[in-house]
Amino acid sequence: MSEEVNAEQTPSKGKSKNIGRQALVWLVIILGLPVAIYYLVGSENYSNGERIGLVTQFSKRGVMFKSWEGHLNITQTGMNSADGFDFSLDRTSGLTENSEKLLDSSATYGWKVKLIYHQTFLRNWFSYRGETNYFIDSVVVLDKSFSSNVNDGSSAGNGGNSGRAVDTVYIVITPSDPNYKKFFKN
């Protein structure tokens, strides 16, 4: 009888050992798949580019990971674009201190800047580097004259255009207007 009991216990030990190995294999697959995707598919330099405009928002944000985030109003041929550009300063790079001061000044004084950036793909999980996937590599100030004219009270009243901000006005002329031809030269 004791031999029969041992024979019955042997297969059950093999099954539990087999189930443990299968669980270990599945655990390795489940944990290893995101790591494999991160290294095989993700890219630090998914795209590179530059944007020109006025920084309208620049602040340090985050609950667990604090990072500098900003918004750039893109200017094209002197006019603002409808779309903005949200960007981050990579908290893991050494660029943060100098760029932080320059971007803060450009947001405060209205300087026109060129942001040179790179976009990441699957390399910013949990937003630990910044809220966006667009990270600034360098900042170039293109024009400080707008801010000096607007913020400097000494130029007001000299009869020139300095010291005032001018908006663009769009006029739409439709054929339903009986006098629309007077706006065009023959």
Strand content of the residues, in percent?
25-35%
CATH fold-level name of the domain at 44-148: OB fold (Dihydrolipoamide Acetyltransferase, E2P)
Question: Number of helical segments?
Answer: 3
> Span from first to last CA?
116 Å
Task: Please give the CATH architecture of the domain at 44-148.
Answer: Beta Barrel
For the largest beta-sheet, the strand count, sense and barrel status come to: 5 strands, antiparallel
CATH class of the domain at 44-148: Mainly Beta
What's the average pLDDT? Answer: 75
Uncertain spans: 147-164
Give the H and E element order: HEEEHEEH
Portion of residues within helices: 25-40%
Main-sheet strand order equals: 3-2-1-4-5
Inertia-based shape: elongated
- The radius of gyration is 30 Å
Classify the secondary structure makeup into a structural class.
alpha+beta
Number of strands: 5
